[in-house]
């Protein structure tokens, strides 16, 4: 059996749950095809350790695809990220108290990396399943963007495609939200579409602002 590595984050900013992990852990073991199944892992919300752990997991599990997910507070849909940028600019401290401001993710690295997932196809498939989704043009400048950038940096030139998805809060957060069962189904559709689609489609999938 081959592995599609799917990660979610631990809670941060005084939250007690992180919907990215709550959803991803329910997808552990899901078979995407006869020979590929999802392996779910949690990442710490810390600049010093999250990307290191992800890269270690890639070495250990030798996945055929890697999709990281995180909570995007205020997001109202499943946001398929297009681009990771080479900037850390933390609005709040991470779970280890680090708050890098205007530092590079990778010193001397390119300004940005694009997702290598078929982002438009993923948006379309999730929408066709009746679940809100869009392409997002920024993954922010906190731990999620850092992990996304390090992920793309680590896999440059590799046949393993990778990317990042931000998810809304849960209804009890009082923020724009999505129910957990819908989130799980939306992520399942997004991940399955990523795995089964080689060439992306060309159509609108972004938001107006
Ligand atoms: N969201 C944060 C970090 C962890 C998470 O789930 C972010 O968007 O950077």
From TrEMBL:
The keyword Nucleotide-binding does not apply. Pfam families: Peptidase_C15. Its EC number is 3.4.19.3. The keyword Cytoplasm applies. One of its GO terms (cellular component) is cytosol. It catalyses: Release of an N-terminal pyroglutamyl group from a polypeptide, the second amino acid generally not being Pro. GO terms for molecular function: pyroglutamyl-peptidase activity. Keywords: Cytoplasm, Hydrolase, Protease, Thiol protease. It is found in: Cytoplasm. SUPFAM superfamilies: Pyrrolidone carboxyl peptidase (pyroglutamate aminopeptidase). Gene3D superfamilies: Peptidase C15, pyroglutamyl peptidase I-like. The active site is at residues 81, 144, 166. GO terms for biological process: proteolysis. Removes 5-oxoproline from various penultimate amino acid residues except L-proline. Homotetramer. Belongs to the peptidase C15 family. NCBIfam families: PRK13197.1, pyro_pdase. This is Pyrrolidone-carboxylate peptidase. The gene is pcp.
């Amino acid at each position: 059996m081959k592995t599609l590595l799917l990660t979610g984050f631990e809670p941060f900013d005084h939250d007690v749950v992180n919907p990215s992990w709550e959803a991803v852990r329910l997808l552990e073991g899901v078979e995407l095809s006869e020979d590929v199944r999802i392996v779910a892992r949690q990442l710490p919300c810390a600049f010093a350790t999250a990307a290191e752990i992800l890269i270690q997991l890639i070495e250990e599990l030798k996945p055929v695809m890697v999709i990281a997910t995180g909570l995007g507070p205020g997001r109202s849909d499943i946001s398929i990220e297009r681009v990771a940028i080479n900037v850390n600019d933390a609005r709040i401290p991470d779970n280890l108290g680090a708050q890098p401001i205007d530092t590079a993710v990778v010193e001397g690295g390119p300004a940005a990396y694009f997702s290598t997932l078929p982002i438009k196809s993923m948006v379309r498939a999730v929408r066709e399943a009746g679940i809100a989704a869009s392409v997002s043009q920024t993954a922010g400048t906190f731990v999620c963007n850092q992990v996304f950038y390090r992920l793309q940096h680590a896999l440059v030139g590799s046949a393993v495609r990778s990317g990042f998805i931000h998810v809304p809060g849960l209804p009890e957060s009082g923020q724009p939200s999505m129910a957990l069962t819908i989130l799980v189904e939306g992520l399942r559709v997004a991940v399955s579409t990523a795995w089964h689609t080689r060439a992306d489609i060309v159509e609108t999938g972004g938001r107006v602002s």
